[in-house]
């Protein structure tokens, strides 16, 4: 859907810098810079730098054998998923009593991380809101879904049709959208920026709520453990939603099961392969009156 109203920001076009990590994932770190380029595009010095920054600390914390087994498991999972043979690429998971097929896409190897569940749920949501006005915060679904025609804002990603602006600087009339979506994006706000601002996600959520029309929905997925402050604010209700649902990853495979939200907060975020082991799905509906 088109964007109406006034927005402080610009639309940039051009090639998107890669945000894949040495192994997998989609999270960024630092003020507007990707964590690392694709391994295939690294020169030897870059690869050595990644080794020193990621592999060496992981070996120190976990032990060389554990890191080696993690890498082997990742490679096997990559090959099986690439061939469409793994459960994480061809199976399904139960969510709210229904079976949802895992979403498989080569971009960022969805079968290796939380995208196989997150995008699957987002795809259902978009289909349910077909023809309505949608805002996506963070340019995620354009990489995975065909015929994405909704408004997208992303502070850093340079891509056709993406409005490059800070989420707290969106300046649109109240109630502009039927659906506002943020897929594993708000955990970066106030954290992976020049200035650390732990209170910024709360301001972002307040602004996004104001953009939802009466009866409309704000829908957010959040990788547990990436931003402990945001974890705490969601858990305590300091950042309030109508419902919090949770998915937890199997310890050894990228398959997911729905659990009570109280059973997901201890899920660790794996910063070696940049993958969540727990996802919170937060929903808020703006009252009609």
UniProtKB/TrEMBL annotation:
Name this protein carries in UniProt: Class I SAM-dependent methyltransferase
SUPFAM superfamilies xref list: S-adenosyl-L-methionine-dependent methyltransferases
Pfam family, one: Methyltransf_11
The keyword Coiled coil is assigned to this record: no
Gene Ontology molecular functions: S-adenosylmethionine-dependent methyltransferase activity
The keyword Methyltransferase appears for this protein: yes
Gene3D superfamilies to which the protein is assigned, alphabetical: Vaccinia Virus protein VP39
Gene source species: Nocardioides daphniae
Span of domain Methyltransferase type: 162-219
InterPro entries given in the database record: Methyltransf_11 (IPR013216), SAM-dependent_MTases_sf (IPR029063)
Keywords tagged on the record: Methyltransferase, Transferase
One of the protein's GO biological processes: methylation
């Amino acid at each position: 859907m088109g964007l109406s109203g006034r927005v402080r920001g610009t639309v940039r076009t051009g090639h998107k810098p890669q945000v894949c990590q040495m192994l997998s994932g989609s999270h960024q770190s630092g003020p507007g810079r990707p964590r690392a380029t694709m391994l295939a595009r690294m020169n030897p010095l870059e690869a050595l730098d990644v080794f020193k920054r990621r592999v060496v600390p992981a070996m120190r914390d976990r032990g060389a054998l554990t890191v080696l087994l993690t890498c082997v498991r990742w490679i096997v999972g990559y090959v099986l998923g690439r061939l469409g043979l793994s459960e994480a690429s061809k199976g399904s998971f139960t969510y709210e009593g229904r079976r949802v097929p895992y979403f498989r896409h080569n971009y960022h190897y969805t079968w290796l991380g939380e995208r196989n569940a997150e995008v699957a749920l987002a795809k259902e949501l978009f289909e349910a809101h077909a023809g309505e006005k949608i805002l996506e915060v963070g340019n995620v679904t354009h990489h995975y879904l065909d015929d994405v025609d909704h408004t997208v804002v992303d502070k850093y990603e340079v891509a056709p049709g993406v409005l490059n602006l800070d989420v707290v600087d969106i300046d649109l009339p109240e109630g502009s959208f039927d659906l506002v979506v943020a897929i594993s994006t708000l955990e970066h706000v106030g954290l992976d920026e020049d200035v650390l601002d732990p209170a910024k996600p709360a301001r972002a959520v307040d602004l996004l709520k104001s953009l939802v029309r009466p009866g409309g929905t704000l829908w957010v997925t959040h990788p547990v453990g990436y931003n402990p402050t945001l974890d705490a604010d969601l858990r305590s209700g300091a950042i309030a939603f109508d419902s919090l649902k949770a998915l937890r990853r199997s310890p050894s495979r990228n398959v997911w099961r729905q659990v009570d939200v109280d059973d997901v907060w201890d899920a660790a975020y794996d910063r070696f392969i940049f993958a969540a082991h727990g996802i919170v799905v937060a929903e808020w509906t703006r009252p009609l009156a």
